[in-house]
């Protein structure tokens, strides 16, 4: 019997476990892989993510390793025009965007948890709920036959979430775009003098970006409406790298091609970009009784606004905040409060998640699709007038603070599950 079971040890799962620890509840994380997964190599975390990390108590550890971004540049490959976006500090803590290694982020979060909080090689085969002594209990069965009963189950198991499927959410859909991601290493230093900026390049049906992580490492991204050739045959990384350099991105600036050339092939990945229809988030079952979802299990989205990981961190804090308010001073889950807390969490996250899924998809559509005069005009307006407002409006968000263990309110009844 567990207090809380979290399915998935990605950003959302680990951050949620940290949030729950801070409100006095230990969670068991079930991860199907043998170790922490680091697919994607790196990611940009915008100001709203740093507010969440500050609440979780880990922002200082990461900020000491990575410099903030003060601006971003968008270059039109055809016209060579450049638009600049200045990032505004978050109004709560003055945070600016920073790029981080995904592995480092996961490790920093995992270090905050008690020993044995993560059970690796644990693949869920089924879920069900039953009533025991008048109370709802979730039963999780693993592929090795282990049966775990839990008072709360939180699905943080990605775009193909078993928990989301159990809740009845429809599967994510293909956006029509695919992406290659990689980490490039320059042993003698990359020498970029614009290390505090995000560089992006757009062309019809294509979008690329890169940003520095430190003096020797650069993260890069390439998205297109057509996937690299041979991916259906699981092409090796070297073939995918060559396809990007010699075909898909051949007209992109030499500086970008040189970065792709220096890729650490072990970090290079290709994937179709999936998203959940926003109306499924607005009206679907994000929670049922003592079960809910967070991160990509709730709101998979395309990466144009860089908000996937940011929203996962927000989810963790908001969920911890609502569940924290349902715990007694002794750290026990109170039966009358758990379902209400989860319902409030889902209600709070619906509109923001659906809005950002929509904004990310439309941003990608404006950036990549179509070469007509109307689309070029819309792109110019978006880059020149709206992009900065959209990004700064999205990232100036406060996900709230967690209640301290000593100040947790008691429910009307102290009887616990």
UniProtKB/TrEMBL annotation:
Keywords (A to Z) from UniProt: Monooxygenase, Oxidoreductase
SUPFAM superfamilies: FAD/NAD(P)-binding domain (SSF51905)
Highest taxon in the source lineage: Eukaryota
Residue ranges of domain FAD-binding in the record: 3-357
InterPro entries to which the protein is assigned, alphabetical: FAD-bd (IPR002938), FAD/NAD-bd_sf (IPR036188), MOase (IPR044560)
Molecular functions per Gene Ontology: FAD binding; monooxygenase activity
Stated family: Belongs to the 3-hydroxybenzoate 6-hydroxylase family.
Name of the protein in question: FAD-binding domain-containing protein
Source organism (scientific name): Eucalyptus grandis
Species lineage: Eukaryota, Viridiplantae, Streptophyta, Embryophyta, Tracheophyta
């Amino acid at each position: 019997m567990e207090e809380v079971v979290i399915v998935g040890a990605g950003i959302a799962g680990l951050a949620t476990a940290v949030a729950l620890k801070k409100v006095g509840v230990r969670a068991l994380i079930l991860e199907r892989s043998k170790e922490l997964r680091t697919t994607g190599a790196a990611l940009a975390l915008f100001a709203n993510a740093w507010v969440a990390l500050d609440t979780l108590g880990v922002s200082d550890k990461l900020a000491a390793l990575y410099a903030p971004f003060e601006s971003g540049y968008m270059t039109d490959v055809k016209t060579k025009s450049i638009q600049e976006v200045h990032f505004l500090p978050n109004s709560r803590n003055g945070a600016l965007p920073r790029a981080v290694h995904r592995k480092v982020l996961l490790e920093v979060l995992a270090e905050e948890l008690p020993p044995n909080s993560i059970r690796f090689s644990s693949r869920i085969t089924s879920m069900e709920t039953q009533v025991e002594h008048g109370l709802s209990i979730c039963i999780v069965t693993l592929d090795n036959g282990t049966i775990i009963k839990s008072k709360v189950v939180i699905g943080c198991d990605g775009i193909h979430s078993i928990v989301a499927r159990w809740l009845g959410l429809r599967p994510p859909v293909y956006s029509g775009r695919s992406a290659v991601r990689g980490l490039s290493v320059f042993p003698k230093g990359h020498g970029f003098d614009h290390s505090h900026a995000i560089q992006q390049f757009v062309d019809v049906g294509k979008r690329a970006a890169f940003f520095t992580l430190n003096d020797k490492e650069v993260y890069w991204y390439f998205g297109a409406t057509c996937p690299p050739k041979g991916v259906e045959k699981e092409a090796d990384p070297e073939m995918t790298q060559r396809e990007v350099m010699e075909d898909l991105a051949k007209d992109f600036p030499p500086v970008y091609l040189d970065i792709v050339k220096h890729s650490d092939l072990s970090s290079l990945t290709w994937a179709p970009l999936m998203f959940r229809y926003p109306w499924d988030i607005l009206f679907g079952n994000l929670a049922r009784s003592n079960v809910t979802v967070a991160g990509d299990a709730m709101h998979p989205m395309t990466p144009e606004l860089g908000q996937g990981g940011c929203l996962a961190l927000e989810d963790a804090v908001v969920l911890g905040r609502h569940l924290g308010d349902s715990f007694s001073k002794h750290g026990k889950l109170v039966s009358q409060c758990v379902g209400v807390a989860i319902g409030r969490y889902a209600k709070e996250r619906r509109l923001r998640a659906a809005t950002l899924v929509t904004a990310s998809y439309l941003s990608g559509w404006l950036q990549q699709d179509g070469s007509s005069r109307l689309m070029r005009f819309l792109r110019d307006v978006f880059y020149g007038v709206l992009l900065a407002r959209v990004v700064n409006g999205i990232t100036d968000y406060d996900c709230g603070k967690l209640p301290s263990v000593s100040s947790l309110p008691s429910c009307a009844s102290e009887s616990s599950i």
